[in-house]
Fold this protein.
Amino acid sequence: MEEQPKEITLDEVRQALLDDAVQLEQPQLYRLSGLEAPDIETLSAFWDQISSDRRQSLLDELETLADSNTTMDFDSVARVALADENPITRTTALRILWECEDPKLIPDLVNMLENDDDQNVRAQAASTMGHFLHLGELSKIPPDSMSQAEDALLAVMESEDHPEVRRQALESLGYSGREAVRGHIEEAYEYGDEEWQASALAAMGRSADREWEPEVLEKLDHVNELVREEAARAAGELELEMAAAALFQMLEHEEEEVRMAAAWSLSQIGGNDVQEALENQLEFSESDAETSLVEDAIENLVFTEELEDLSMLEFSEDQLEPPLDEPED
């Protein structure tokens, strides 16, 4: 009978973490996934005993692992790290928590947004809160939790905080249906600063409001690459067919980020020649990151077109149904 591999204990992970000379192996990193209450308390108790550099390198490894393996759940480790003395570690922890769906995290995010002394941490807290606004629009968190997040983000937008913090708040507020948000987006779009214009476009894309179509189309050929990139993303999020021609041209742009944004947006919009264009881009992709994204875009395009076919089928079947008989007098 084949011997089963020995289960890694949290104490073994602790001993490895406390020794900077020991390189953590993948099974030890896996052990930190999905921690439950007793293990979380244990981790919290020895967290500060780990060297600052080791704590940061651990979170970097967990973030990379979570990106490549969606079954991994390091939210508990990240929540412990939110109180870390190193602002870089706190920022990394907030990124790891981007997909967390527990509304109990919102008060911690609000507290960091309002009170953390590091602007990068505050900006990342604002960004992470955007995910909860999205969940709120989908009715996946309680309305009062969503309101708490919206109130905090709107307060930051109307404050004198660092522009990067306020821009991240605006992008997150794109998911909100609050009336005040539209005014903030319009003001940012009309402002001469290109970083503000890019954030306004990001918010437009998240709004699911096609009334922003003229503004998005106008910026697709903007001279600034960041503005053009966000316009491309917004066009895809809003599924703007009129943007397709410009997006096809962007596939030949010299900057990889612009090409990748255009590829993904075309997969969201669909239409004639998109698959051929994406397959051609895949052949000439210049990095592993671009190859991976274009492959995902091709898969997403198939999904998008299948949904369109299903919608058309349902529409045709509805047309074939005989009208209901009018009631007799």
Notes: The radius of gyration is 23 Å. Confidence is low (pLDDT under 50) at residues 323-329. The CA atoms of residues 113 and 122 lie 4 Å apart.
